[in-house]
Amino acid sequence: MSLHVDFDRDLWVYVPAEWPWEQFRGVEEWSTALVNALGEANGYDASMREWLDATLQGMSRGADTDEHRFAYLARPHEVLGLASIYEQPVHADLSPEQLAGADDPRATRPVAAAPFEGGRLGRGLSAVRHLADENGIITAVAQWVWRLDDRDVLMVVGDDDLARFELLRDDYDALARSIGTAD
Prior knowledge:
With 183 residues, the protein is α+β, with helices and mostly antiparallel strands. It folds into 2 domains: 18-62; 84-181, no CATH class. It has helices spanning 27-42, 46-61, 96-99, 162-177; strands spanning 3-5, 12-15, 67-75, 79-88, 112-116, 124-132, 138-147, 152-159, 179-181. The strands form 2 sheets. Strands 2-3-4-8-7-6-5 form a 7-stranded antiparallel sheet. It has a two-stranded antiparallel ribbon with strand order 1-9. A hairpin with a 7-residue loop joins strand 5 and strand 6 (124-132). Helix 1 runs antiparallel to helix 2 (46-61). The longest helix is centred in the first third of the chain and has 16 residues, at 27-42.
């Protein structure tokens, strides 16, 4: 990845998808270290530790090959969040608005799209849309898009718990602002 994300380590954890990673030989070793740290800090019992271990391993194993995941783990016993960052060649056939889903015909209400200011990548675009699945469950999907000279950068979050999405929205925006290019 030629991006550098200067994220708040009190809130977010990078979720690796390929192993070994840093000092960890595999996903089990990584999740155990996180569970031990979070369990100690929050006084988690055995069942909470088991749930968190399975959740962390699922986050890692579920990542796409070109996806860079970040988990919001400030208070995993209260709220979890997941953000995905993609760095891809410029999609010449798609505008930044299209990449952000601003014209998604499946949206259940008008898409809220606006310039995104203050990020390390410069001016981008942010869009939030609401989509209904076949059971009528509404999911909020937010996308931040930057078109650089040689690539498109996209951050995506989605949540079917609309209150949780709104609770974490400022933290998602802060994570998006922390994305920059690597030296």
